[in-house]
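[09:14] KT: can someone run the structure on this one? pasting the chain below
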Amino acid sequence: MPGASPAGPAAVAPTPSPAEREFLALERELAVFLRRARAQSGEMAREVHPELEPAAYGLFVRLDDAGPQRATELSAYFGVGKATMSRQLRALEQLGLVARDPDPADGRASLVRLTDEGRARFRRVRDARRERYVRKLAGWDRAEVAELARLLNHFNQRSEG
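[09:31] RB: done, structure tokens below
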């Protein structure tokens, strides 16, 4: 029949179950959140240094929180390949924002750390970002903010590996 779809002229998607609706809603909200977060990370990275790509901001967050780490640990944490991580770190190193020091546990390896300049630039931008969150969430109860942070942490912990 001309104009008929392969599934038939009256093919309609089945109505999702309540559980499926919950997960569809979660997927939709995460997609919006992640898209906005990627755009904001790009802005934040450029505020740290105009030549940085968006992924750099997450590296600053991790190195500031966890301290010096091997490149392999960083690539595993972010779920990216070693070559990608190496390229990102090389760019940060060339800008003087990170440095590599010998790993005291294994002299063949090195630990990546923020330089004083990298830490100062990152923290200035991070503090400004935190102030934006404070303004955006001004109408929220502090317990709601804490619960959101707890749930996101729970989700992130479950998403590792």
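[09:33] KT: thanks! Helices lie at 18-48, 55-66, 71-78, 82-94, 116-136, 142-159.
[09:34] RB: yep, looked fine to me
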